[in-house]
Amino acid sequence: SQQGEEDPQALSIQEGENATMNCSYKTSINNLQWYRQNSGRGLVHLILIRSNEREKHSGRLRVTLDTSKKSSSLLITASRAADTASYFCATVRMDSSYKLIFGSGTRLLVRP
Amino acid sequence: DAGVIQSPRHEVTEMGQEVTLRCKPISGHNSLFWYRQTMMRGLELLIYFNNNVPIDDSGMPEDRFSAKMPNASFSTLKIQPSEPRDSAVYFCASIPTGQRNTEAFFGQGTRLTVV
Fold it and tell me: CA-based angle A97:A91:A69, to the nearest 5?
């Protein structure tokens, strides 16, 4: 990818379990965002965390950011079959007006 | 607002033909982005515009690719001549003017197949 890597590349869990996805990036950032993509569809924004924030919550989503390690994680609690999708992190770098660069993504399968 | 609108949704063309993809950003959004998504390379930023001006086209793969934004409500991405390796899903996205801590709004994409 143009920015960094996500792991795992694929994750399969049972409905009700928690799903954790990790993202690493390479440059100093202004903010980091997570997006979801259902198969064959466009990307939908989930959550944005600024570089001076360490944790953010939105419903069943929890995002952490560690700028010293250049990494972020996305936790989906109490997963549902409808959460099955690909999840991407994306960063806006500090040195540009707005250049949103995506990671390689994690394919999540939630088994009913 | 109908969101970011891309057309066509699907395009199948023969190698060597010219292909034009179209995008209408959300009204009031003056920054527009073109991405390409493939299994091998993931989501690549090709080019982005601010106030109709191309700011960074370093992701455009080669001279066969060109993009224009003649006004705030319309952009095109053209491939001439097209090649099979250009087969991908092309996404357009827009953001509100002058904001960095904001989400990008994506269109549904154009699936291009070059045979």
Answer: 125
Instruction: Using DSSP, state whether B109 is helix, strand or coil.
Output: coil
Q: Give the integer Cα–Cα distance in Å for B101 and B108.
A: 23
Distance from CA of B64 to the nearest CA of A (A): 21
- Give the separation between CA B86 and CA A65, rounded to whole angstroms: 35
Cβ distance of A41 and B104 shorter than 8 Å: no
Quick count: other Cβ atoms within 10 Å of Cβ B55? Answer: 15
Select from A86, A99, A101, A107 the residue whose CB has the most chain B CBs within 10 Å, as the one to mutate to test that interface: A99
A6-21 confidence digits (pLDDT tens): 889 999 999 999 999 9
Q: Are A76 and A61 in contact (CB under 8 A)?
A: yes
* Contact list, B31 vs chain A (CB under 8 Å): 98
First to last CA, chain A: 31
Q: How far, in Å, CA of A3 to CA of A102, rounded?
A: 6
Determine, for residues A100 and B93 on separate chains, whether the beta-carbon distance falls below 8 Å: yes
What pLDDT score was predicted for residue A1? 47
Find the angle CA(B14)-CA(B110)-CA(B44) to the nearest 5 degrees: 100
Least confident range from A1-10, A13-22, A42-51, B50-59: namely A1-10
Q: Are A104 and B42 inside 8 Å of each other by CB?
A: yes
Name which of B56, B95, B103, B111 to mutate to probe chain A: the one with the most chain A Cβ atoms within 10 A of its Cβ.
B103
What DSSP character marks residue B25?
Answer: P
